[in-house]
Structure formats: structure tokens, C-alpha cells
Amino acid sequence: MEILVTGANRGIGAALLDGYAALGIPAMGTSRDGAVGLKLDVTDPGSISELGRHYAEHRLDLLVCNAAVFLDRGRSLEELVAEDWARTMAVNVTGVAETVRVLLPALRRGSGSKIAIISSQMASQERARGGSYVYRASKAAVLNFGRNLAQDLRGEGIAVGTYHPGWVRTEMGGPDAELSGSEAAEGLIARFEALDMSLTGCFETWDGRDHPL
Ligand SMILES: NC(=O)c1ccc[n+]([C@@H]2O[C@H](COP(=O)([O-])OP(=O)(O)OC[C@H]3O[C@@H](n4cnc5c(N)ncnc54)[C@H](OP(=O)(O)O)[C@@H]3O)[C@@H](O)[C@H]2O)c1
User: Fold this and answer.
1) Residue 210 counted as domain residue
2) What is the pLDDT of residues 139-181, one digit of tens each?
3) pLDDT tens track for 78-109
4) Residue 204 phi, psi (nearest 5)
5) Range of the domain at 139
6) Model confidence at 111, in pLDDT bands (50, 70, 90)?
7) Is residue 107 part of a domain?
8) Is the pTM for the entire model greater than 0.90?
């Protein structure tokens, strides 16, 4: 089983690598400086192309698009500048789509291949609680991408799931969050395992509940 997790040098990505290691399943990660796994900045076209070249001869069975930023935490609309939108969308939306694009050939060579997109409960339109406009919009966009991608890859037997990982004690989640990285990772790994063509297009929580869209 060939697994790749983006943004795996810290936070939930690192916890996912640790979780797979504890199960005896080797998983590859990425980091921006190359200190962990493959070097990847999802906003850098050269870096994206290099990732595609790395997998040119390989297969991939599970791609976890985890890397993201949350630049507008606690900032009002008046405090935001256009650059906050551009940078966030570049990482959280375009970065995911570009990663999937260059890895599709490797996923097509895999068996029962799956794409897991880490979004957030803040993607939900039904639970629009206000604030964090930039991050919420980016996570809603990547949820939309995941659900439409699921339709387009259905015929090829590649399943796509989008996930809320829980509120997790990482740099992004902060120290007061409910879950440890390992608790979130354990749940997510089980959800990735469960993902199949009957669940493709899902938006699920780390503990297996359907999340309101
Ligand atoms: N923590 C939570 O409570 C929570 C809740 C809902 C959803 N999520 C989602 O869960 C995922 C992981 O979050 P986390 O809490 O682990 O966040 P985190 O601790 O802030 O880690 C983010 C990871 O993304 C990487 N990254 C950022 N920009 C990148 C870029 N341009 N190219 C490649 N990698 C990049 C970071 O690398 P550097 O170290 O180089 O910056 C880091 O490895 C994200 O998608 C997040 O939106 C988290």
C-alpha cells in the first residue's frame, strides 16, 4: 500500500505518519523544506512538477491532501487584505487541486486508489457561524472540489472522501482543542480504510459521522 500525506512535518500530517507507523504500514510524507519525506510546497509550480516526476514510475494507493493554512483566525473583515485571500486559496484550494492533478497518473496505477481531502467543519454552508471568512471559504471550496472530483473519478474506481479531522491540538488548532493528534489520526486512518466507492463524495468527521454540507 503506497500512501502519501502532504504537510506531514507537524500537526495532523505528522500524527498520520506516526499512526501508520504504529500499524506497521509505511507512509510517505511531504514537508516544505524536505526535512520530512519528499520536499513539497503546494503553491510552487516547480515543486508540484517535481512531485509528479517523482511518482512518474510509481503507483499511489492513498493520497491525503492535508497541508493548509489558517491566516485569518480572529481577524475581522476590515482587517483582511486581498493577499490573505490569495495566499489561503493558493495553499488550501489550488494546492490540493494541483497535487491531485500531478498524482492522478500514479493513483490510476494503484489498486482501489483513494484520495482523502482534509477540509474542516468550517467548510459547512449549513453551519455558517460567521467569522474566519477566508479560511471558511477555502475549506468550502476544497469540499466542493472533492465532491465534484468524486463524480468524475467514479468511473475509474478512484474514491474521494473529504474530512473534518476534529478540533485537534496542533499549531492550527491551539492548545485548548479537544483531540490529540494521535486520536484524530486514529479516527482518520479508520475513515480512509473505510472509504470505498459506496462512500465516494462523502464529507465525514474523523469519527465516522456524516458532516452537514
Ligand atoms: N487542527 C485543527 O483543529 C483542525 C481543524 C479542522 C481542520 N484542520 C485541517 O487539518 C489539516 C492539518 O491541520 P493542522 O492542525 O495539522 O495544521 P498545522 O499544524 O498548522 O500544519 C499545517 C501543515 O501544512 C503545511 N503547509 C502549510 N503551507 C504549505 C504549503 N504551501 N505547501 C506545503 N505544505 C504546507 C505546514 O508546513 P510548514 O511547517 O512548512 O508550515 C504543516 O506541515 C489542515 O488541512 C487543516 O485545515 C485542522
Assistant:
1) no
2) 999 999 999 999 999 999 999 999 999 999 999 999 999 999 9
3) 999 999 999 999 999 999 999 999 999 999 99
4) -120, 160
5) 3-205
6) confident
7) yes
8) yes
Å from CA of 71 to ligand 1 middle: 11
- Average pLDDT along the chain: 98
Residue bearing cell 476544497? 142
Among candidate residues 58, 54, 42, 50, the one with its CA nearest the CA of residue 2: 58
What separation in Å is there between the alpha carbon of 181 and the centre of ligand 1? Answer: 12
Instruction: Tell me the CA distances in angstroms from 115 to 82, 83, 127, 137, 176, one per residue in order.
Output: 30, 29, 25, 21, 30
The three cell numbers locating residue 45: 509550480
User: From the alpha carbon of 42, which atom of ligand 1 is closest?
Assistant: 32
Instruction: State the residue for C-alpha cell 495566499.
Output: 87
Does residue 211 lie within any of the structural domains?
no
Helices (H), the chain: 11-22, 45-54, 82-89, 95-109, 133-153, 181-194
* Interval between CA 155 and ligand 1 midpoint (Å): 31
What CATH number does residue 104 fall under?
3.40.50.720
The CA 100 to ligand 1 mean position distance, Å, reads 17
In this structure, the residue with its CA closest to atom 24 of ligand 1 is 67
Q: Which three cell numbers stand for residue 194?
A: 473505510
Q: Whose CA is nearest to atom 33 of ligand 1?
A: 41
Total number of domains in the chain: 1
Q: With respect to residue 114, please indicate whether it lies within any of the assigned structural domains.
A: yes
For residue 134, the number of C-alpha atoms closer than 13 Å in the C-beta half-sphere is 25
